[in-house]
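Sat 14:20. Reprocessing the chain from the morning session after the first attempt stalled halfway. Input below, unchanged.
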Amino acid sequence: MRLSVAGGQPELWLRLGREIPYPTGQLRSVTLVCEAGRLFLDVTSAVPVAVHDIDPGRVAGVDVGIIHPFAAASGDAALFVSGRAIRAEERLHLADTKARASHMGRKAPRRGQRGSRRWRKLRAAQRRAETKHRRRVRLAHHQAAKSVVTWALERRVGTLAIGDLAGITTRSLGRHQNLRLRQWRRTHLVGAMRDKAQAAGIQVFKVDERATSSTCPQCGSRTTKPRGRNFACPSCGHQEHRDIVGARNIAAHSGGTTRTPVRVTHRRAGHVPARRDRRRHLWDQRRSSPAPGRPVTTGESLTGEPNRSPRFGDGSRPYRWSPGEDHASSLTTSATPARRCTRAMPRVVPRCR
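Finished this time. Tokens:
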């Protein structure tokens, strides 16, 4: 690809890693971006609006939040999009950033100094981690928005009413809540929803969401905002999740009608990140190729499951030495209970989801 350069500089030729999936006549702009030492090509193209069998009179209310990025309600159906992966990504990234900052503070050069090669490598690793974190969050936002649009198309919804979040950061809600609101990428989240809905032919407009989570959708009485996740009306006794209550009231403010959801759909956006020890491959090699003096997992337990207690290459088990015991005799002991082992292998405990 050939790109023009400002200032009368010669044109720049690029070799792309893959073909651009849009015709040349639909391209509107091409921008070369450098992030964390890597070159990316941002391509803007005009995409025709898809034609779907939708009804513009069907309105769905969408409540935007932190725990659930999107909660939608239309008719007698509701949708929850879980934000667990996004919150886990933010939490782990914050912990890694603090640990990295503590290490970089000891390696930082003094004022006026250029810094060592080690320092420049740490800065480059920090930029790569920040870029990877932003890409993961953006991908999760697009997946959440796609889930809502797909759910709306299945129910022939032609209009989406989204709660207006303007002025949400003007109030002081405490140190922890203010931090959560400022880390919440609500602008990109709503923008991803608007772009995908418009590409599918669904109209999107904002609705004032004031008091939508504290108003009963059944009787219309207003109560104090629930502190938990469930809404309970003191007048009529109606109970429902407060995000669904907010989505139903948003739909009602925009002219739609909703009822108590009979079917609630749950979706998950993003991938839950997991920390992996960099030394884990060393343990894997030891387990696959046992050597004398190295612990490996052998044997079976009473229940028939593999025994996780390690053994050495000669068949003996490691032994925990206690004060007052002969150290030489403890090293020669081969038959010791597994519960006394202190060099146990790291294992992964399966959890039911």
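Helices lie at 84-107, 117-154, 175-183, 186-199, 242-253, 280-288, 327-332.
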